[in-house]
Fold this sequence. Notes:
478 residues, alpha/beta, 39% helix
Amino acid sequence: MQHHKNFIGGEWAAGTSDVPNINPSNMLDVIGHYDHADASQVERAIAAAAQAAPSWAVSNPQSRADALDRVGSEILARKEELGELLAREEGKTRPEGIGEVARAGAIFKFYAQECLRLRGDKLASVRPGIDVEVTREPVGVVGIIAPWNFPIAIPAWKIAPALAFGNSVVFKPAELVPASAWALAEIIGRAGLPSGVFNLVMGRGAVVGQALLDDPRVDAISFTGSTATGAKVAQAAIGRMAKVQIEMGGKNPLVVLDDADLDVAVHCALQGAFFSTGQRCTASSRLIVGKGIHSRFVAALTEKLAALRVDDALKAGTDIGPVVDQLQLDQDIDYIRIGREEGARLAVGGQLVKRDTPGFYLTPALFTDCSNEMRISREEIFGPVACVIPADSYEHALDLANDTPFGLSSGICTQSLKHATHYKRHAQAGMVMVNTPTAGVDYHVPFGGRKGSSYGSREQGSYAAEFFTTVKTSYCAA
Length: 478
């Protein structure tokens, strides 16, 4: 069994311990052993990044563009292989895994060109004989802490802009999904970057993540994960005045008005709430449905859900793969119990099922007779569980949609231009979808939310420059 090392200062370095990476579709399948770093190795990685940062910050943008383009090209060329690896370790279906890998490749290609598009301003001063220039410079050393649910796309949309804009990187992937992160690091390590510009340190958040938060040489932290952990990251970073960007949870509404096209609404709910096993921060876990369409919508969605095949992520014909691990499965089952105890009706699913191999298999669950005050309507479950909440009118539906501590993604299905336009303006979320699933965003546009979902500037697209650069204003007398 191959042991996968950390990447520090341009070299592969053995960790102090290693952990097996288990396939959630088949718990007997060990994908590999991945080394965990201790605090001293994280310190070495930070030191390497700090040493490399000054020269990389002023490097030729074409050389950065060429390196990122090479990374993107290799990811795309290997998307079938890497997509299968991703599906094997995370549990999303093979087609979903390949799609995520292709997105990661496209992200690196996009930021290869962003290296050459970083703009500034030349302004007239109010004082005669003075020129004013506004430019952007890299922040310095960036610590990146990524989640397990998108093990290559989310690291890509953090690492690529960090490198493109001249920062050095220390990357900590989620403990559950080291294989995709290691494969990405191995590709980046061969792309021609100077030693120390990119570093991979795998391990526990309490060790690796905490070291990144505490070290004053880490100038910025980009984190995606749970709300509770995100709050701790924010406090630690702000406490030492480090720049911080945090993406956390969601309890995203999909409003279905009485005039909605039923097929479109069911498709949006099915894709948004349940695919990728519902393990997406943008999943539409609250389905707010007009009373005039409620019974038809529930019947049609229930029929679709009952027909979905839950099975091994690598099997042809699998619609939904397993839950990522036992802890997440236990959480999903616990919330299904809570929903029943709160008085909601389990219309379909929510059952543990056995397949050819031992895995964390759960049929997608749909609750009806829900209110927006129930825990299953307010707390992020992060699994294939959604609740249907009836609405009396558009105004009532909008109020219900906004009545949440989160604000990441919000959707509406309607054929009314009036209501669609009003909803886009008044939905309290960072991203609004009309007649399209709440989950699924393009790689070249900003990603992020409001309220308890996000803190700091947006990710992705040209907006990533807001976090990964700092603005300098220069005055020069003629």
